[in-house]
TrEMBL record:
<keyword id="KW-0067">ATP-binding</keyword>
<protein>
    <submittedName>
        <fullName>Iron complex transport system ATP-binding protein</fullName>
    </submittedName>
</protein>
<feature type="domain" description="ABC transporter">
    <location>
        <begin position="3"/>
        <end position="235"/>
    </location>
</feature>
<dbReference type="InterPro" id="IPR003439">
    <property type="entry name" value="ABC_transporter-like_ATP-bd"/>
</dbReference>
<dbReference type="InterPro" id="IPR003593">
    <property type="entry name" value="AAA+_ATPase"/>
</dbReference>
<dbReference type="InterPro" id="IPR027417">
    <property type="entry name" value="P-loop_NTPase"/>
</dbReference>
<dbReference type="Pfam" id="PF00005">
    <property type="entry name" value="ABC_tran"/>
</dbReference>
<keyword id="KW-0813">Transport</keyword>
<dbReference type="GO" id="GO:0016887">
    <property type="term" value="F:ATP hydrolysis activity"/>
</dbReference>
<keyword id="KW-0547">Nucleotide-binding</keyword>
<dbReference type="GO" id="GO:0005524">
    <property type="term" value="F:ATP binding"/>
</dbReference>
């Protein structure tokens, strides 16, 4: 699925949070949204998902304005995973993942064998098979995050929006999740604070600052000392780690 935003703006009374953002994400591309807190990343993702109505501009899926898609059709095209999400504490891990199948069946039909097979695959991809029967209230923060990602995978969409999905995850699961995002054939837009993870796994980076896009391109073109100084107020050095991946070192905040 191709995702396009054209001159997109959104805000609250007295404050514009997303300001005239234009963005195109090609089918199968993984794009990382980076920027400091309050730069508009989460709000932009919600506009792309159709969860917030922009005050100006337009979002299109495969060239069609999303306002022309009923909500259940949008949910078949694109899954959204927010930073933190709560769920009925009586549900099991498998039950939460099964919620992703809701958009593919009528309200009168329960899960069938095909639905269960999709959920089992999603749980396996997130390393949750052994936790399938675990109650939600017994999960750690990282396990809850992976469960919601399993729900999004079970939704079987062509697009995936992830808002800080590595929050609460240990290093191993951060790497596994980003590897999954990089390898999936889905179109992915992921907001990240970890610049090293973004550089390593995303096809390109979009740097936001004060609601606007200030840089868009390959990691090496976006993660530069002048841009990091301007946007994050830090002095930084860019190099390569022992594995050849782009590395960002911070010397000190800008005084």
């Amino acid at each position: 699925m191709r995702i396009d935003a054209e001159e997109l703006s959104w805000g609250v009374p007295g404050k514009t949070i997303v300001r005239a953002v234009s963005l195109s994400v090609a089918e199968g591309e993984t794009v990382g949204l980076i920027g400091p807190n309050g730069s508009g990343k989460s709000s932009l993702l919600r506009c792309l998902a159709g969860l917030r109505t922009p005050t100006a501009g337009q979002v299109r899926y495969d060239g069609v304005d999303i306002t022309r898609w009923p909500s259940h059709e949008r949910a078949r095209k694109l899954a959204f995973v927010e930073q933190t999400a709560d769920t009925d504490s009586d549900l099991r891990v498998a039950d939460v993942a099964m919620l992703g199948r809701t958009v593919h069946r009528s309200r009168w039909r329960g899960p069938d064998a095909a639905d269960h097979a999709v959920v089992e695959e999603a749980l396996a991809r997130l390393g949750l098979t052994d936790l399938a029967d675990r109650p939600w209230k017994q999960l750690s923060g990282g396990e809850r995050q992976r469960t919601h990602l399993a729900r999004a995978l079970a939704q079987r969409t062509t697009g995936l929006l992830l808002d800080e999905p590595t929050n609460h995850l240990d290093v191993r699961h951060q790497l596994e999740l980003m590897e999954l995002a990089a390898r999936t054939p889905q179109t992915v837009v992921v907001a990240l604070h970890d610049l090293a993870l973004a550089a390593r796994y995303c096809d390109r980076l979009v740097l936001m600052h004060r609601g606007t896009v200030v840089a868009d391109g390959p990691a090496a073109d976006v993660l530069t000392p002048p841009l990091l100084r301007e946007v994050f107020d830090v002095e930084a050095e860019i190099g390569r780690d022992a594995l050849g991946h782009l590395a960002v070192g911070y010397r000190e905040p800008v005084r």
